[in-house]
Design goal:
Length: 233
């Protein structure tokens, strides 16, 4: 028996970038492989831990003794130069077009420079202000990025919906007090247990604008947990 549709009443939406709005998995893996090979580290380890995290946090794990500023500039340059295969994910353009421009923003672990390059490459009409790795002192899985995103919109975190695809992002969104909808694009359902709802992609997410807020309607493929009472419409 198929799952029943879910309706969530919210005031704002916070989108992760890589794996939610665009697919740059191959570029990310190529970039971290190149960096690891240049520096003599294990490429497989770099690829495994880089997804969904700020580059500065990956670097701290990979080479805590390195000059972080030097290495961060190197990996950023490598990633900015590689947009081969970047694609906008299914349902994204339709969903963004249905949302009021002042009710959503991007919350990403990429740097500002890299995020702008990737969003432009995907022809996504990015908000004037987004939350990037440069704007927070602690990245995902800490709640700081999504708290900053909610503050940017001027909306309480409990009234925001987070769209994420990584375990770290789902944990961060939930810790911030947001309702988290995770896609199974890049991670298994089991690893996304912090999310309130799981969906395959954004194709089936519908938007209705009402006087009391934004209503998102979708059919989850699996309930990760019981949703919070204030997440229901």
């Amino acid at each position: 028996m198929s799952a029943s549709p879910v309706e969530i009443l919210c005031q704002g939406i916070l989108f992760d970038m890589d794996g939610i709005l665009i697919s740059s998995l191959e570029a990310v893996e190529r970039s971290w492989t190149k960096w690891a090979e240049l520096r003599g580290f294990d490429p497989a380890m770099a690829r495994r831990i880089a997804h969904g995290r700020r580059a500065v946090d990956t670097l701290a794990t990979m080479c805590p003794e390195c000059d972080c500023d030097v290495e961060l500039k190197l990996i950023e340059d490598i990633e900015v130069a590689d947009n081969e295969g970047l694609t906008v994910l299914p349902g994204v353009c339709e969903l963004l077009a249905a949302l009021p421009a002042d009710r959503w923003t991007v919350v990403t672990s990429a740097t500002e420079r890299l995020a702008r390059v990737r969003l432009a490459a995907g022809k996504i009409p990015a908000p004037e202000q987004i939350v990037t790795a440069d704007r927070v002192s602690r990245g995902k899985p800490h709640p700081d990025p999504f708290l900053a995103g909610a503050a940017l919109l001027g909306i309480a975190p409990k009234d925001c919906v987070v769209f994420e695809d990584s375990a770290a992002g789902a944990i961060a969104g939930r810790a911030a007090g947001c309702t988290v909808v995770a896609t199974t694009f890049s991670h298994s359902a089991e690893s996304l247990e912090a999310a309130h709802y799981l969906v395959k992609d954004l194709i089936g997410v519908r938007v209705a604008i009402r006087d009391d807020g934004i209503v998102l309607t979708f059919v989850p493929i699996e309930n990760a947990t019981e949703p919070k009472a204030d997440a229901r419409s």
